[in-house]
Amino acid sequence: MRREQQKEVRRRAILHSAETLVRETHSVDFSMIDLGKRAGLSTATTYNLIGSKATVLYTLLNQSLSRLFEQSRLAYRGNDPIEHILMAADVAARFFTADPNFYKPMMMFLLGVPDPVHRPQFMQMAFNYWADAVEELATALKTSEPVEAADIALNCHILFAGALDLWVQNELDNAQFQAQVHHSVAIQLVFLANKRVQNRLLKSIRETRAQLPPLARRSEAAAQ
């Protein structure tokens, strides 16, 4: 086996070991020494092959975003750009809630740790997910300035990140997180939809609102 191939095998072993540790412990409190031991490598070799712990965790999350991107593209079979965006929101919410013991500790760590090297790449990938979902809407919005497709994508990105934080902090359970994402994105899109889709969005806004905890209860949870 060539030298570069050997390095790649070891990098994969490190990433697999990190993912296993997160799933086993439901946390990211392991050290690079722990990670190296689990991967069968020295601490120095682990650092040399992949870098810091933050690099490892961001790499795992970037891989997850790539899988999410693929799932969203495979799921969409319609021809309405508004419904495409809402479907992308639902797919993303289900993606995270399908594996809470992995994503909650990962996001808890990464949301609280400034990282000027890896965070921009991760956030760009997250924005690109929404930009892809909004792409079909771009043509329709060309004559609807000042609203632009990029505005919609960025707003979806921000809305999802806000709901994700509430979920990570256990202020929303899995079902409530899914409802909150759908609810927030639907409210943003309802004014851009045609009458048929608008009626469906208004119905889903009412339904998802009923699934969300009252604001007073949310405020109490946030204060605890």
From TrEMBL:
DNA-binding region residue numbers: 31-50
Domain of life the protein comes from: Bacteria
InterPro entries documented for this protein: Homeodomain-like_sf, HTH_TetR
Limits of the HTH tetR-type domain: 8-68
Keywords, sorted A to Z: DNA-binding
Gene Ontology MF: a single term: DNA binding
Name the record gives this protein: TetR/AcrR family transcriptional regulator
